[in-house]
Protein backbone atom coordinates (compact mmCIF):
# COMPACT_ATOMS: atom_id res chain seq x y z
CA UNK A 1 0.00 0.00 0.00
CA UNK A 2 2.05 2.88 0.77
CA UNK A 3 5.34 3.48 -0.87
CA UNK A 4 8.34 1.30 -0.49
CA UNK A 5 11.02 3.36 1.19
CA UNK A 6 13.35 4.69 -1.45
CA UNK A 7 16.36 3.04 0.11
CA UNK A 8 14.74 -0.34 -0.20
CA UNK A 9 13.24 0.00 -3.64
CA UNK A 10 14.76 2.34 -6.13
CA UNK A 11 12.59 3.49 -9.00
CA UNK A 12 12.17 0.69 -11.46
CA UNK A 13 12.86 -2.04 -8.96
CA UNK A 14 10.82 -5.16 -9.14
CA UNK A 15 7.52 -5.20 -7.37
CA UNK A 16 8.07 -6.80 -4.01
CA UNK A 17 5.91 -9.75 -3.25
CA UNK A 18 3.27 -7.96 -1.34
CA UNK A 19 0.45 -9.24 0.20
CA UNK A 20 -0.09 -11.77 2.55
CA UNK A 21 0.31 -12.43 5.25
CA UNK A 22 -0.24 -14.53 7.70
CA UNK A 23 -2.35 -17.35 8.73
CA UNK A 24 -3.93 -16.15 11.83
CA UNK A 25 -5.29 -19.49 12.78
CA UNK A 26 -7.70 -17.61 14.87
CA UNK A 27 -10.81 -19.25 16.07
CA UNK A 28 -12.96 -17.02 18.15
CA UNK A 29 -16.35 -18.26 19.03
CA UNK A 30 -18.07 -16.23 21.66
CA UNK A 31 -21.50 -15.43 22.74
CA UNK A 32 -22.33 -11.79 22.42
CA UNK A 33 -23.71 -10.34 25.57
CA UNK A 34 -27.00 -9.46 23.99
CA UNK A 35 -28.98 -12.44 22.88
CA UNK A 36 -26.18 -14.99 22.82
CA UNK A 37 -25.59 -14.68 19.11
CA UNK A 38 -22.52 -16.58 18.04
CA UNK A 39 -19.71 -14.65 16.50
CA UNK A 40 -17.13 -16.68 14.69
CA UNK A 41 -13.91 -15.87 13.03
CA UNK A 42 -12.55 -19.03 11.49
CA UNK A 43 -9.05 -19.63 10.27
CA UNK A 44 -8.65 -16.19 9.01
CA UNK A 45 -6.04 -15.38 6.49
CA UNK A 46 -4.82 -11.94 6.72
CA UNK A 47 -4.07 -8.99 4.82
CA UNK A 48 -1.36 -7.62 2.92
CA UNK A 49 -0.21 -4.18 2.70
CA UNK A 50 1.04 -3.76 -0.80
CA UNK A 51 3.74 -1.21 -1.18
CA UNK A 52 3.89 -0.13 -4.76
CA UNK A 53 7.25 0.56 -6.17
CA UNK A 54 7.76 3.89 -7.85
CA UNK A 55 7.34 3.55 -11.56
CA UNK A 56 10.21 4.39 -13.81
CA UNK A 57 10.61 7.95 -14.82
CA UNK A 58 10.99 7.96 -18.53
CA UNK A 59 12.65 10.46 -20.72
CA UNK A 60 10.54 12.65 -22.93
CA UNK A 61 11.80 10.85 -25.99
CA UNK A 62 10.66 7.39 -26.96
CA UNK A 63 13.46 5.05 -26.07
CA UNK A 64 12.26 1.54 -26.65
CA UNK A 65 13.47 -0.35 -29.66
CA UNK A 66 13.93 1.44 -32.91
CA UNK A 67 13.08 5.09 -33.09
CA UNK A 68 9.86 6.03 -34.79
CA UNK A 69 10.19 7.63 -38.17
CA UNK A 70 10.86 11.31 -37.75
CA UNK A 71 7.91 13.59 -38.24
CA UNK A 72 7.82 17.21 -39.09
CA UNK A 73 7.23 19.55 -36.18
CA UNK A 74 3.92 20.57 -37.70
CA UNK A 75 2.74 16.97 -37.93
CA UNK A 76 3.73 16.32 -34.33
CA UNK A 77 1.92 19.45 -33.17
CA UNK A 78 -1.19 18.51 -35.12
CA UNK A 79 -1.19 15.04 -33.62
CA UNK A 80 -0.69 16.42 -30.15
CA UNK A 81 -3.65 18.74 -30.57
CA UNK A 82 -5.83 15.95 -31.97
CA UNK A 83 -5.04 13.65 -29.04
CA UNK A 84 -5.47 16.45 -26.50
CA UNK A 85 -8.87 17.12 -28.02
CA UNK A 86 -9.75 13.43 -27.78
CA UNK A 87 -8.79 13.43 -24.10
CA UNK A 88 -10.77 16.57 -23.33
CA UNK A 89 -13.81 15.10 -25.06
CA UNK A 90 -13.45 11.89 -23.08
CA UNK A 91 -13.47 13.74 -19.75
CA UNK A 92 -16.38 15.90 -20.84
CA UNK A 93 -18.33 12.80 -21.89
CA UNK A 94 -18.05 11.38 -18.37
CA UNK A 95 -18.94 14.69 -16.75
CA UNK A 96 -22.00 15.21 -18.93
CA UNK A 97 -22.92 11.49 -19.07
CA UNK A 98 -22.69 11.38 -22.86
CA UNK A 99 -21.86 7.85 -23.99
CA UNK A 100 -21.96 8.74 -27.66
CA UNK A 101 -19.27 11.35 -27.15
CA UNK A 102 -17.16 8.91 -25.13
CA UNK A 103 -17.25 6.32 -27.92
CA UNK A 104 -17.02 8.57 -30.94
CA UNK A 105 -13.28 8.36 -31.62
CA UNK A 106 -12.86 4.61 -31.27
CA UNK A 107 -11.73 2.28 -34.02
CA UNK A 108 -15.09 1.21 -35.50
CA UNK A 109 -13.62 -2.14 -36.52
CA UNK A 110 -12.61 -3.04 -32.98
CA UNK A 111 -15.79 -4.45 -31.47
CA UNK A 112 -14.06 -5.67 -28.32
CA UNK A 113 -12.53 -2.28 -27.57
CA UNK A 114 -15.92 -0.64 -28.05
CA UNK A 115 -17.56 -3.09 -25.66
CA UNK A 116 -14.88 -2.52 -23.04
CA UNK A 117 -15.06 1.24 -23.40
CA UNK A 118 -18.84 1.11 -22.92
CA UNK A 119 -18.31 -0.71 -19.62
CA UNK A 120 -15.57 1.73 -18.63
CA UNK A 121 -17.88 4.65 -19.33
CA UNK A 122 -20.74 3.16 -17.32
CA UNK A 123 -18.40 2.42 -14.40
CA UNK A 124 -16.90 5.91 -14.36
CA UNK A 125 -20.34 7.49 -14.42
CA UNK A 126 -21.59 5.23 -11.63
CA UNK A 127 -18.60 6.01 -9.40
CA UNK A 128 -19.57 9.65 -9.25
CA UNK A 129 -16.51 11.75 -10.03
CA UNK A 130 -16.14 15.30 -8.77
CA UNK A 131 -13.29 15.72 -11.16
CA UNK A 132 -11.90 13.90 -14.18
CA UNK A 133 -9.23 14.88 -16.68
CA UNK A 134 -6.69 13.17 -18.91
CA UNK A 135 -3.35 14.47 -20.13
CA UNK A 136 -0.58 13.16 -22.36
CA UNK A 137 2.62 12.28 -20.54
CA UNK A 138 5.21 11.12 -23.07
CA UNK A 139 5.27 9.17 -26.28
CA UNK A 140 6.42 5.56 -26.09
CA UNK A 141 7.58 3.49 -28.99
CA UNK A 142 6.83 -0.17 -29.44
CA UNK A 143 7.73 -2.03 -32.62
CA UNK A 144 5.09 -4.67 -31.94
CA UNK A 145 2.36 -2.05 -31.79
CA UNK A 146 3.57 -0.46 -35.02
CA UNK A 147 3.54 -3.84 -36.68
CA UNK A 148 -0.01 -4.42 -35.51
CA UNK A 149 -1.50 -1.00 -36.13
CA UNK A 150 0.57 0.46 -38.97
CA UNK A 151 3.05 3.24 -39.56
CA UNK A 152 0.94 6.08 -38.13
CA UNK A 153 0.83 4.35 -34.72
CA UNK A 154 1.13 6.78 -31.82
CA UNK A 155 1.54 5.19 -28.41
CA UNK A 156 1.33 7.57 -25.48
CA UNK A 157 1.33 7.30 -21.72
CA UNK A 158 -1.67 9.11 -20.31
CA UNK A 159 -2.28 10.49 -16.84
CA UNK A 160 -5.83 10.25 -15.58
CA UNK A 161 -6.61 12.67 -12.79
CA UNK A 162 -9.83 12.17 -10.90
CA UNK A 163 -11.57 12.55 -7.59
CA UNK A 164 -14.28 10.15 -6.49
CA UNK A 165 -17.09 11.96 -4.75
CA UNK A 166 -16.71 11.76 -0.97
CA UNK A 167 -13.91 9.20 -1.25
CA UNK A 168 -10.76 10.96 -2.40
CA UNK A 169 -9.89 13.93 -0.22
CA UNK A 170 -7.87 15.44 -3.07
CA UNK A 171 -7.65 14.74 -6.81
CA UNK A 172 -5.46 11.70 -7.47
CA UNK A 173 -3.62 10.41 -10.51
CA UNK A 174 -3.40 7.03 -12.20
CA UNK A 175 -1.78 6.15 -15.51
CA UNK A 176 -2.65 4.24 -18.63
CA UNK A 177 -1.50 3.92 -22.22
CA UNK A 178 -3.42 4.68 -25.38
CA UNK A 179 -2.60 3.69 -28.95
CA UNK A 180 -3.85 5.97 -31.70
CA UNK A 181 -3.66 5.70 -35.47
CA UNK A 182 -4.48 8.20 -38.15
CA UNK A 183 -7.22 7.18 -40.53
CA UNK A 184 -8.58 9.44 -43.23
CA UNK A 185 -6.98 12.42 -41.51
CA UNK A 186 -8.52 11.55 -38.14
CA UNK A 187 -6.81 10.19 -35.03
CA UNK A 188 -8.71 7.30 -33.48
CA UNK A 189 -8.11 5.08 -30.47
CA UNK A 190 -7.27 1.51 -31.49
CA UNK A 191 -5.94 -0.01 -28.29
CA UNK A 192 -5.60 0.71 -24.58
CA UNK A 193 -3.46 -2.24 -23.44
CA UNK A 194 -0.28 -2.01 -25.58
CA UNK A 195 1.55 -0.10 -22.86
CA UNK A 196 0.22 -1.97 -19.83
CA UNK A 197 3.39 -3.97 -19.16
CA UNK A 198 5.53 -0.83 -19.13
CA UNK A 199 3.43 1.12 -16.66
CA UNK A 200 3.73 1.22 -12.88
CA UNK A 201 2.27 -1.54 -10.74
CA UNK A 202 -1.50 -1.64 -10.83
CA UNK A 203 -1.83 0.77 -13.73
CA UNK A 204 -4.84 0.24 -16.00
CA UNK A 205 -6.02 -2.28 -13.45
CA UNK A 206 -8.20 0.12 -11.53
CA UNK A 207 -11.55 -1.15 -10.29
CA UNK A 208 -13.32 0.52 -13.23
CA UNK A 209 -11.04 -1.09 -15.82
CA UNK A 210 -12.09 -4.65 -15.10
CA UNK A 211 -15.78 -5.31 -15.72
CA UNK A 212 -19.18 -3.88 -15.04
CA UNK A 213 -19.64 -3.23 -11.35
CA UNK A 214 -22.21 -1.82 -9.02
CA UNK A 215 -21.58 0.67 -6.26
CA UNK A 216 -22.93 0.77 -2.69
CA UNK A 217 -22.55 3.91 -0.65
CA UNK A 218 -22.88 4.90 2.97
CA UNK A 219 -21.33 7.79 4.86
CA UNK A 220 -17.52 7.43 4.50
CA UNK A 221 -17.89 4.11 2.66
CA UNK A 222 -18.02 3.16 -1.00
CA UNK A 223 -18.16 -0.52 -1.89
CA UNK A 224 -17.69 -1.86 -5.41
CA UNK A 225 -18.94 -5.36 -6.24
CA UNK A 226 -19.77 -7.24 -9.44
CA UNK A 227 -22.97 -6.15 -11.14
CA UNK A 228 -25.79 -8.08 -9.49
CA UNK A 229 -23.82 -8.98 -6.36
CA UNK A 230 -26.08 -6.67 -4.40
CA UNK A 231 -26.48 -8.65 -1.21
CA UNK A 232 -22.72 -8.82 -0.77
CA UNK A 233 -22.35 -5.13 -1.50
CA UNK A 234 -24.79 -4.22 1.27
CA UNK A 235 -23.21 -6.66 3.73
CA UNK A 236 -19.75 -5.17 3.17
CA UNK A 237 -21.10 -1.67 3.72
CA UNK A 238 -22.39 -2.76 7.13
CA UNK A 239 -19.06 -4.37 8.11
CA UNK A 240 -17.10 -1.38 6.84
CA UNK A 241 -19.09 1.01 8.97
CA UNK A 242 -18.34 -1.11 12.03
CA UNK A 243 -14.67 -1.16 11.06
CA UNK A 244 -14.64 2.64 10.81
CA UNK A 245 -16.04 2.85 14.34
CA UNK A 246 -13.29 0.53 15.57
CA UNK A 247 -10.51 2.50 13.95
CA UNK A 248 -11.94 5.73 15.33
CA UNK A 249 -12.21 4.17 18.78
CA UNK A 250 -8.84 2.43 18.99
CA UNK A 251 -6.47 4.61 16.98
CA UNK A 252 -5.98 8.18 18.17
CA UNK A 253 -5.40 9.92 14.84
CA UNK A 254 -8.33 12.17 14.00
CA UNK A 255 -8.97 10.90 10.52
CA UNK A 256 -12.20 11.81 8.78
CA UNK A 257 -11.59 10.22 5.41
CA UNK A 258 -13.55 7.53 3.59
CA UNK A 259 -12.84 4.00 2.44
CA UNK A 260 -13.28 2.45 -0.96
CA UNK A 261 -13.55 -1.32 -0.86
CA UNK A 262 -13.47 -3.41 -4.03
CA UNK A 263 -14.73 -6.99 -3.72
CA UNK A 264 -14.69 -8.14 -7.32
CA UNK A 265 -14.26 -11.49 -9.00
CA UNK A 266 -10.72 -10.55 -10.00
CA UNK A 267 -7.38 -11.75 -8.66
CA UNK A 268 -5.51 -8.72 -10.01
CA UNK A 269 -6.90 -5.40 -8.93
CA UNK A 270 -4.71 -2.33 -8.79
CA UNK A 271 -1.35 -3.45 -7.37
CA UNK A 272 -2.77 -6.52 -5.63
CA UNK A 273 -1.81 -9.83 -7.26
CA UNK A 274 -3.61 -12.40 -5.18
CA UNK A 275 -2.99 -15.26 -7.60
CA UNK A 276 0.80 -14.87 -7.38
CA UNK A 277 1.03 -15.11 -3.64
CA UNK A 278 2.74 -17.94 -1.82
CA UNK A 279 0.69 -17.32 1.26
CA UNK A 280 -2.65 -15.95 0.29
CA UNK A 281 -3.86 -12.75 1.82
CA UNK A 282 -7.47 -11.88 2.38
CA UNK A 283 -7.17 -8.24 1.45
CA UNK A 284 -4.74 -5.48 0.72
CA UNK A 285 -4.68 -1.72 0.93
CA UNK A 286 -3.01 0.01 -2.01
CA UNK A 287 -2.03 3.65 -2.24
CA UNK A 288 -3.59 6.37 -4.27
CA UNK A 289 -1.27 9.17 -5.35
CA UNK A 290 -1.89 12.87 -5.67
CA UNK A 291 1.39 12.83 -7.57
CA UNK A 292 2.61 9.55 -9.05
CA UNK A 293 6.04 8.14 -8.26
CA UNK A 294 8.37 9.64 -10.82
CA UNK A 295 6.02 12.49 -11.65
CA UNK A 296 7.30 15.24 -9.34
CA UNK A 297 9.37 13.19 -6.91
CA UNK A 298 10.79 9.66 -7.04
CA UNK A 299 8.42 8.39 -4.37
CA UNK A 300 5.36 10.35 -5.39
CA UNK A 301 2.87 11.71 -2.88
CA UNK A 302 0.45 9.30 -1.27
CA UNK A 303 -3.07 10.69 -0.99
CA UNK A 304 -4.78 7.71 0.60
CA UNK A 305 -5.49 4.06 -0.12
CA UNK A 306 -8.19 1.77 -1.48
CA UNK A 307 -8.92 -1.68 -0.08
CA UNK A 308 -9.19 -4.65 -2.39
CA UNK A 309 -10.43 -8.04 -1.28
CA UNK A 310 -9.08 -11.38 -2.47
CA UNK A 311 -11.92 -12.88 -4.59
CA UNK A 312 -11.58 -16.17 -2.74
CA UNK A 313 -12.10 -14.42 0.59
CA UNK A 314 -15.14 -12.40 -0.37
CA UNK A 315 -17.47 -14.52 1.74
CA UNK A 316 -15.41 -13.96 4.88
CA UNK A 317 -15.23 -10.22 5.09
CA UNK A 318 -16.09 -8.88 8.48
CA UNK A 319 -15.36 -5.81 10.54
CA UNK A 320 -12.32 -7.45 12.14
CA UNK A 321 -10.61 -7.97 8.82
CA UNK A 322 -11.71 -4.57 7.59
CA UNK A 323 -10.59 -2.74 10.72
CA UNK A 324 -7.03 -3.88 9.98
CA UNK A 325 -7.24 -2.57 6.42
CA UNK A 326 -9.04 0.62 7.40
CA UNK A 327 -6.20 1.36 9.84
CA UNK A 328 -3.85 1.33 6.83
CA UNK A 329 -6.20 3.64 4.92
CA UNK A 330 -6.49 5.97 7.92
CA UNK A 331 -2.71 6.36 8.07
CA UNK A 332 -1.87 6.18 4.35
CA UNK A 333 -1.69 9.90 3.65
CA UNK A 334 0.88 10.45 6.40
CA UNK A 335 3.56 9.51 3.91
CA UNK A 336 4.16 5.78 4.12
CA UNK A 337 7.75 5.86 5.41
CA UNK A 338 7.04 4.04 8.66
CA UNK A 339 8.63 0.60 9.04
CA UNK A 340 6.37 -2.30 8.16
CA UNK A 341 6.54 -3.79 11.65
CA UNK A 342 4.91 -0.60 12.92
CA UNK A 343 2.36 -0.36 10.08
CA UNK A 344 1.24 -3.97 10.38
CA UNK A 345 1.60 -3.95 14.16
CA UNK A 346 -0.70 -0.93 14.44
CA UNK A 347 -3.28 -2.45 12.09
CA UNK A 348 -3.23 -5.67 14.09
CA UNK A 349 -3.44 -3.68 17.29
CA UNK A 350 -6.69 -2.01 16.20
CA UNK A 351 -8.09 -5.25 14.86
CA UNK A 352 -7.36 -7.15 18.08
CA UNK A 353 -8.80 -4.40 20.22
CA UNK A 354 -11.99 -5.01 18.25
CA UNK A 355 -11.82 -8.73 18.97
CA UNK A 356 -11.21 -7.99 22.63
CA UNK A 357 -14.29 -5.79 22.77
CA UNK A 358 -16.39 -8.60 21.35
CA UNK A 359 -14.92 -11.63 23.08
CA UNK A 360 -13.28 -10.27 26.21
CA UNK A 361 -9.57 -10.40 27.05
CA UNK A 362 -9.22 -14.20 27.04
CA UNK A 363 -8.56 -14.74 23.35
CA UNK A 364 -6.18 -11.82 23.08
CA UNK A 365 -4.20 -13.02 26.10
CA UNK A 366 -4.01 -16.50 24.67
CA UNK A 367 -2.85 -15.27 21.30
CA UNK A 368 -0.33 -12.92 22.83
CA UNK A 369 1.21 -15.76 24.84
CA UNK A 370 1.37 -17.87 21.71
CA UNK A 371 3.27 -15.18 19.85
CA UNK A 372 5.68 -14.83 22.77
CA UNK A 373 6.23 -18.57 23.12
CA UNK A 374 6.25 -19.63 19.49
CA UNK A 375 6.80 -16.76 17.07
CA UNK A 376 9.29 -14.61 18.96
CA UNK A 377 11.98 -17.31 19.42
CA UNK A 378 12.05 -17.91 15.66
CA UNK A 379 13.23 -14.38 14.88
CA UNK A 380 16.52 -12.66 15.65
CA UNK A 381 15.35 -9.09 15.20
CA UNK A 382 12.30 -6.99 14.47
CA UNK A 383 10.98 -8.04 11.05
CA UNK A 384 12.60 -5.86 8.41
CA UNK A 385 10.74 -4.36 5.46
CA UNK A 386 12.69 -6.44 3.02
CA UNK A 387 10.91 -9.75 2.57
CA UNK A 388 8.32 -8.89 5.21
CA UNK A 389 5.41 -10.22 3.17
CA UNK A 390 7.16 -13.37 2.06
CA UNK A 391 8.45 -14.22 5.52
CA UNK A 392 7.19 -17.56 6.75
CA UNK A 393 7.62 -16.54 10.37
CA UNK A 394 4.68 -14.88 12.08
CA UNK A 395 5.88 -11.36 11.39
CA UNK A 396 2.38 -9.99 11.91
CA UNK A 397 2.18 -11.47 15.37
CA UNK A 398 5.61 -10.16 16.37
CA UNK A 399 4.83 -6.71 14.93
CA UNK A 400 1.61 -6.67 16.90
CA UNK A 401 3.53 -7.64 20.02
CA UNK A 402 6.01 -4.81 19.48
CA UNK A 403 3.15 -2.32 19.29
CA UNK A 404 1.50 -3.82 22.39
CA UNK A 405 4.81 -3.46 24.19
CA UNK A 406 5.23 0.16 23.13
CA UNK A 407 1.65 0.98 24.13
CA UNK A 408 2.28 -0.58 27.55
CA UNK A 409 5.47 1.48 28.02
CA UNK A 410 4.52 4.79 26.44
CA UNK A 411 0.75 4.89 26.08
CA UNK A 412 -1.30 4.75 22.91
CA UNK A 413 -1.13 8.46 22.14
CA UNK A 414 2.67 8.46 22.14
CA UNK A 415 2.73 5.40 19.88
CA UNK A 416 0.35 7.08 17.44
CA UNK A 417 2.59 10.17 17.46
CA UNK A 418 5.62 7.97 16.85
CA UNK A 419 3.78 6.40 13.92
CA UNK A 420 2.95 9.77 12.46
CA UNK A 421 6.52 11.06 12.76
CA UNK A 422 7.99 7.91 11.20
CA UNK A 423 5.38 7.84 8.42
CA UNK A 424 6.18 11.44 7.52
CA UNK A 425 9.92 11.55 8.08
CA UNK A 426 11.32 8.01 8.25
CA UNK A 427 12.67 8.23 4.74
CA UNK A 428 15.80 6.22 5.45
CA UNK A 429 17.14 4.01 8.21
CA UNK A 430 19.12 6.84 9.86
CA UNK A 431 16.00 9.00 10.08
CA UNK A 432 13.97 6.09 11.40
CA UNK A 433 16.60 5.33 14.06
CA UNK A 434 16.75 8.96 15.14
CA UNK A 435 12.95 9.30 15.41
CA UNK A 436 12.53 6.01 17.25
CA UNK A 437 15.32 6.81 19.70
CA UNK A 438 14.13 10.35 20.38
CA UNK A 439 10.52 9.35 20.93
CA UNK A 440 10.91 6.03 22.74
CA UNK A 441 14.45 5.79 24.07
CA UNK A 442 14.86 2.59 22.04
CA UNK A 443 16.70 1.73 18.90
CA UNK A 444 15.27 -1.14 16.85
CA UNK A 445 17.98 -3.32 18.38
CA UNK A 446 17.26 -2.42 22.01
CA UNK A 447 13.52 -2.55 21.37
CA UNK A 448 14.00 -6.12 20.24
CA UNK A 449 15.93 -7.01 23.40
CA UNK A 450 13.22 -5.55 25.59
CA UNK A 451 10.52 -7.24 23.54
CA UNK A 452 12.11 -10.61 24.26
CA UNK A 453 11.56 -9.90 27.94
CA UNK A 454 8.10 -8.41 27.58
CA UNK A 455 5.57 -9.59 30.08
CA UNK A 456 2.03 -8.65 29.25
CA UNK A 457 -0.02 -6.99 31.96
CA UNK A 458 -3.01 -9.16 32.58
ZN1 LIG B 1 -1.84 -4.99 6.80
Please describe the topology of this protein.
Layout: E1 22-23, E2 28-31, E3 38-41, E4 45-46, H1 73-95, H2 99-103, H3 111-127, E5 129-140, H4 143-149, E6 154-164, E7 172-183, E8 186-191, E9 213-218, E10 221-226, H5 230-250, E11 259-263, E12 268-269, E13 272-273, E14 283-291, E15 301-309, H6 319-332, H7 340-359, H8 361-375, H9 395-410, H10 412-425, H11 429-440, H12 444-452
Parallel strand pairs: 10-11, 11-15
Antiparallel strand pairs: 1-4, 2-3, 5-6, 6-7, 7-8, 9-10, 12-13, 14-15
Helix pairs in contact: 5-6, 6-7, 7-8, 7-9, 8-9, 9-10, 10-11
Zinc ion binds at residues 47, 49, 324, 328, 344, 347.
Give a structural overview.
With 458 residues, this protein is α+β, with helices and mostly antiparallel strands. It has 2 domains: 22-55 and 212-452, Neutral Protease Domain 2 (Neutral Protease, domain 2, Orthogonal Bundle); 73-199, Nuclear Transport Factor 2, Chain: A. Helix content is 38%, strand content 20%. Helix 6 packs antiparallel against helix 7 (340-359), helix 7 packs across helix 9 and helix 10 (412-425) runs antiparallel to helix 11. The two termini are 34 Å apart. Zinc ion binds next to helix 6 and helix 7. Zinc ion (ZN) is lined by residues 47, 49, 324, 328, 344, 347.
